[in-house]
Amino acid sequence: MQEEVDLIFNRIANHIVSVIDTEWSVIIINGEAADGSLELDCRYRCAESPEEVAFFAPEEVLLDFLRLRYLIHAQIGKNWETFDISIYSEGDFEINFTYANDI
Predict the structure, then answer these.
(1) What pLDDT digit, counting tens, does each position of 16-42 carry?
(2) Residues with Cβ < 8 Å from 18, sequence gap 6 or more?
(3) Helix %, strand %, coil % for the chain, to 5?
(4) Range of the domain at 63
(5) pLDDT (tens digit, 9 = 90+) per residue, 47-100?
(6) Radius of gyration (C-alpha) of the chain in whole angstroms
(7) Calpha distance 66→39 (Å, rounded)
């Protein structure tokens, strides 16, 4: 199951990187899941300035985050309610989930 989670993470990152047509230093996505829906706030920071630019994630990304939520629930028995992810142009990333009883 961990391999499937890793594949989804990679697919999400690849989809997101493909929609940004300029050099960037970090991509920041904040998400919130409730009642079977998912809201994303997507931004990236330009490589040459601190400016943040909003963008819309492709539908595939929304579906992959919902798949990821299902898989994590199957693994640990809890659904995350919010998350934040940062993808850095060097290839590193950070992701944090908040679960209902963590709030």
Answers:
(1) 988 998 899 999 999 998 777 889 999
(2) none
(3) 40, 40, 25
(4) 2-102
(5) 888 889 999 998 999 999 989 888 888 888 888 899 999 999 998 889 999 997
(6) 14
(7) 11
- pLDDT tops 70 at residue 102: no
Helices vs. strands in the chain: H and E counts, helices first: 2, 5
Q: Which of 88, 93, 85 is nearest to 65 (CA)?
A: 85
Q: Which helix (H) or strand (E) holds 99?
A: strand 93-99
CATH number at residue 27: 3.30.500.20
First to last CA, the chain: 27
> What's CA 90's distance to the chain center, in Å?
17
